[in-house]
Design a protein that fits this description.
The chain is α/β, with parallel strands linked by helices and about 350 residues long. The protein contains 11 helices and 12 strands. Helix 7 runs parallel beside helix 8 and helix 10 packs across helix 11. The structure holds adenosine-5'-triphosphate. The site of adenosine-5'-triphosphate (ATP) has 16 residues, from helix 1.
């Protein structure tokens, strides 16, 4: 039995983050009414605007409050005046590490009516999920610099791969594959990264014994990029490390029709801390304020949040309703979309309300 009341923290953020989050919340309300649960929401002003006005990125009191919620919905953070890295390290990566959000869940699904840059690609050939390990690899900040600014300068950036960290990501991926089409692909670089990739490969081989129904495959990350473009039907669930996952999933976002489509979840599957759901896109300062942002990625992220909270029927209804609007759009975002951000949100919310 899923709970029927949820405390949800909302971080609309900057730029189009605030615009798409408003629509995601409309849809969340419609789903709550339709499927009989309630949400109690707290909004947090975090992101570029707050940093520029107060110098604060994530005060520890705010982090403690966030931790008391069941889930976090994030729009997008970033403004052109904030130096790169401040919000990424101080907010997004900090929450990933401190809340142990060790799974980054990134569906790559081409929906009906969405233009893809891959000629001839049809939706039946593109429906996969990338499981990106989210707390280790190259993103831990382990490394250093020696003789900085001199001709003899040396910089190192190390990839951290613990058996514990790899195994929990791999097990999550196997569980998901067992619920889907029973196919798991490890994506790494065994031919060059002989220490890290060996740990990943051995872990996959050992864990595979617990999942006899799941077929296991392997691709090098470079080949994975090629196949994602030429034959995405090869993939059902892909598991990979933090850096490779970051890169491969942006390619996936392009294949599935762009940033207006790409949703993500940063999960703590144990439930010890709230999981965080966000569209992949940034704050898009170039279009902010015009009602030109496509809110569908934010809505898909909300669907993932609902599934995580145990409301699978509501999640499916939200995904179906959002997907049904896509063929009615002229473009997948920008001035020629044919509908405003708010009109799209209204339409999805209405379709959720009457969903069967
Ligand atoms: P960041 O560093 O925060 O990711 P960015 O500018 O590199 O910022 P985005 O903000 O995601 O990346 O924007 C990339 C491009 O995609 C921009 O041209 C933007 O207008 C467009 N874009 C992003 N999100 C959307 C959306 N929801 N709907 C339509 N277009 C979008």
């Amino acid at each position: 039995m899923s709970k029927t009341h949820h405390r949800v923290a909302v971080i609309p953020g900057d730029g189009v983050g605030t615009e798409v989050t408003a629509e995601a919340l409309k849809v969340l309300d419609a789903a709550a009414n339709r499927f009989g649960f309630t949400t109690e929401r707290t909004e947090y002003d975090l992101g570029g605007r707050r940093y520029l006005s107060t110098g604060e990125v994530l005060p520890s009191s705010v982090q403690a409050e966030l931790d008391g919620h069941d889930a976090i919905l994030l729009g997008a953070v970033g403004t052109p005046d904030v130096p790169p890295g401040v919000l990424e390290r101080g907010l997004l990566l900090k929450l990933r590490f401190d809340f142990d959000l060790y799974i980054n869940l990134r569906p790559v699904k081409l929906y009906e009516g969405v233009p893809t840059p891959i000629a001839g690609l049809t939706p039946d050939r593109c429906d996969m999920v990338v499981i990106r390990e989210n707390t280790e690899g190259m993103y831990t900040g382990v490394g250093g610099v020696f003789k900085k600014g001199t001709p003899l300068e040396i910089a190192t950036q190390e990839s951290i791969n613990s058996r514990y960290g790899v195994e929990r990501a791999v097990r999550f991926a196997f569980d998901l594959a067992a619920e889907r089409r029973n196919h798991l692909t490890l994506c790494h670089k065994t031919n060059v990264l002989t220490f890290a990739a060996d740990l990943w490969q051995r872990t996959v081989n050992e864990v595979a014994g617990d999942y006899p129904t799941v077929a296991v495959d392997y691709v090098h990350v470079d080949a994975a990029c090629l196949y994602l473009v030429t034959s995405p039907e090869r993939f059902d669930v892909m598991v990979t490390d933090n850096l490779f996952g970051d890169i491969v999933t942006d390619l996936g976002a392009a294949v599935q029709g762009g940033l207006g489509m790409a949703a993500s979840g940063n999960l703590n599957p144990s439930g010890d801390h709230p999981s965080m759901f966000e569209p992949v896109h940034g704050s898009a300062p170039d279009i902010a304020g015009n009602g030109w942002a496509n809110p569908v990625a934010a809505v898909f992220s909300t669907a993932m949040c609902l599934a995580h909270l145990g409301h699978r029927d509501a999640a499916t209804a939200v995904e179906v309703a959002a997907a049904s609007v896509l063929p009615e759009l002229e473009t997948m975002g920008g001035p020629d979309m044919g509908m405003s951000t708010a009109q799209i949100g209204d339409m999805i919310a209405e379709r959720v309300s009457i969903s069967k």
